[in-house]
Amino acid sequence: MEEGSNRDDALGGRMKLISSKVDSKIYFHKDAVLEYMDLKHIIGDLTEEKARMEQEVHKRLATAPPELLTPVREQLAAAKDELAATRAKLDAANEELAVTREKLGAANEELAATREQLEAEKKEVAPTKEQLIEAVRHQDEQQSASAAALESVECQPSMSLTLCELSENTWSRDELDVLRGMLIKEFLQLDSGGRILGVKEMGRLNRKPFDEACASKLSPTEAKKTASKLYATWENLLKNPNWKPFKTVVVGDDHHKSILLGKDIDVDDDKLQELKRAWGEGAHNAVVRALVEMSEYNCLDDRTITYELWNYKAGRKATTIECVEYMSDQAKQLSVARRRKTRR
């Protein structure tokens, strides 16, 4: 049930985020409407002032000598020009207000559609939670009933991997994503020290190769400072979406050529080659590996870090079944420890 609430919280969080975006747009449009109303009041004041000035001018014209009519006519022309310019601004403001209203209507429709989608997802998640709980419960019972068989399978890594893949194939992609997200959240709350399975930050630059490279060339004190500075420089460069060390692909004929930016890492990039020449392959490969992971998890546009379940012993992504089995074992060990403590 706790896993289900976490899923509901995630959906609620998405709805709140979308609602917040729409609210910000509504506030922006409200500001535009207020600005329009202020401008309209100014126009009204100018119109009244113009009418008053015209009345005064007509009175003066009726009593003024001919030589005084020229300045008055100039003032009247200037007032007419100002009124025309103000009317043009008012027309532009009206058009902008119409566009703003259309955008606001579209935003409201988008919010309504998103709410309907989230409600539909909630309905889909409800049976999925029960399936996940039942699957974990079934896995726990199966492990308790056939401990010897599991030990035999664990002694054969290839067979264990095949069984895990067969079990995962019975789940839909959405169900697996939900389960892996829950497992990642649980693993992040556990102590990561010395565990075979855990969470790896995909796209995170490894610090160790930089420490080793500096230690091999500098004194201990200088190596520590240089390594920290060098690592920070490359970590910031990795986070910069404007740095794109990727191979370009030319498509089309000689008359119509297009150059596209591919996803393959260009290991001959000037900055990467400079790093390799100065500090060796270890630091160079660490940067390339971080870029490859970002590319694999589609994080090159925003350069964010993605959490992944990881089998540190095998050096690969952990299967869902491996993680469920591990969590089940942890629960058993905790239960046994509590019983022993109670007996004492």
TrEMBL record:
GO biological process: gene silencing by siRNA-directed DNA methylation
Coiled-coil blocks: 36-124
Claim: Disulfide bond is one of the keywords in the record: no
Keywords: Coiled coil
Domain Factor of DNA methylation 1-5/IDN2: 200-334
Protein name, UniProt field: Factor of DNA methylation 1-5/IDN2 domain-containing protein
Naturally occurring in which organism (per UniProt): Eleusine coracana subsp. coracana
